[in-house]
Specification:
Helix content is 2%, strand content 38%. It contains two helices and 45 strands. The strands form seven sheets. The chain has a 16-stranded parallel β-sheet that branches. The N and C termini lie far apart (85 Å).
Length: 615
Amino acid sequence: MKRILLITSFVLAAFIVHGQTINDPFFKKVSFKGAFGKEDWTAGWANFDPQNTDYPNPTSTLGNGDLSAAGGLKITTNQTISGTVKLDGWVYVNSGATLTIQPGTIIRGTTGSTLIIERGAKIIAEGTKEQPIVFTSMKPKGSRAPSDWGGVIILGRATNNQGNNVTIEGGVGATYGIGDGPAIEDDSSGILKYVRIEFPGYDIDGNGNEVNGLTMGSVGSRTVIEYVQVSFSGDDGFEWFGGTVNCRYLIALATEDDDFDTDYGYRGNVQFALAIRDPKVCDTDGARGFESDNDANSSYNKPYTSAVFSNVTLIGPGVDESATQKHEVGLLLRRNTRLQIYNLVSTRYIKGGIVIDGDPTQQAAKDDSLKIQYSIMAGYSAKAVATKGTSNPLTNPYAWYLGNNNDTTSFEALKLSFPVDVTKASLSFMPGSGSVLLNGSSWGKPVASITISSPKDSILINESIQLTASVSPNDAANKDVKWSIVSGADKATINANGELQGTAAGTVTVKAEAEDGSGVSATITVVVKNQVGVANVNYLSQIYPNPVTDVLNIKGISSLSKVEVYDVTGKKIRSQYNINSTQTNISFDALPAGLYIVRIQYLNGSSDLQKVYKK
């Protein structure tokens, strides 16, 4: 944050301090530290070489070229954009309006151009892995640089600790906060998913009043921010001013200033975040992975900046080749912040791992309000943890750090590649085999093995069985599994709970993969048959008359789901679905005489097969 901004209305709300915790259901329980286990969640949508990426020329324009709050384009009704679009000037989406950006859309910004989603407005920018939405420079490849255009600003109506109507950083004149109230902590400003923001971060007035890559002011918790990459930003990559928005899968690449900046009472949750520094890229104020303040005055204003970050990888530049020589530390925690950090790894920052700056911040750490736990500082030696202050109440910061289940280690123990070529960064952030990052998270041990059990090794077409997965060890971080069919997907379906249903004759291989990020999985093979043959008779249900002439009556022991009738070849010839009753009947009229099999499915998952004879 570059400067103290004018607060247009300082009527503080009656804030409720939310008890943020790593046990919030938002967090996925994984066994690894840092942003990655065995899965590369950047694959397919991220871009580590936007400088040399060909983008098509725009075929339409959003904006009128005016870089002022008074003259910039105001979107007052719902609008949808697609294709390749030139962003030209300051564009405001006004309260009540929604801007929808279709998957695969490319938005190319001219100098200073900025998209502002005002309080009460929404952006629906929901790309896909295959078709991400890209905000990028208007300049041709080879000529792009940080600060080629402004950035994206999203504002909401959740609380902050500065006032009801706070002017957002960047000089665009928009405000955030509860306004006339009441506070809407679960406010929704829309969706930002599978989105790249490249070469943003414009200095509006030449005095450090800069737009970040993605700026969020009082954004509420129903807003979706997932799979967002900010690359080569001329200011911060991501900055939160108050609010409660939760974020997942964030990438900050080659940021000039801070990668993740939290201020003014931000108290959302963030999981899976990656920052990679470029040795040649740095601004004049100092560049860090984290910068966190309660506010610029180290006040005790509530709500405190108390966001919870988990599973973060911070990879510093290793050497400082920038013109400013201002590459600094991995984490600067200052001005009375109460941030909570878990399962983080920081390495290769020039001036060390963590600095806890100021007596109020040190006291918060001592009182366990500022938390760093289950994290690793790698390769820093004596510079892993440091303090700055006057009285320095945290007398032994290194002992405090180690006493919270944190550790220090060598860079080599991480099994990461270095130095980082930012254009090929995917080679550097995934931990190799034997890495200390692959176990020891705050949630427990990695899964070691999975055993799949099935009540039978074959099923009939349309028959369902419940597969179960046993996970070891018992104290694994997460014992949930993800079910999928790895071969024979045209022969069966499986749901999230492991219920397998046959759809066509053949062999099906099912996989259960650990959800803890360990990459451990197991498979089982089930055969789907279309021959009914001499089915087992379970007699869970009463069927009458038997032999049947016209109508077969069925009475179950509990509520029925469906009834199906098969001939002796396995062909389904009658069916009845969504019964939701203990009794039903099914017609045998016009069927030829002979033996039939009746399959009776219960709502509780039980099933019954019975033989019936048609006269």
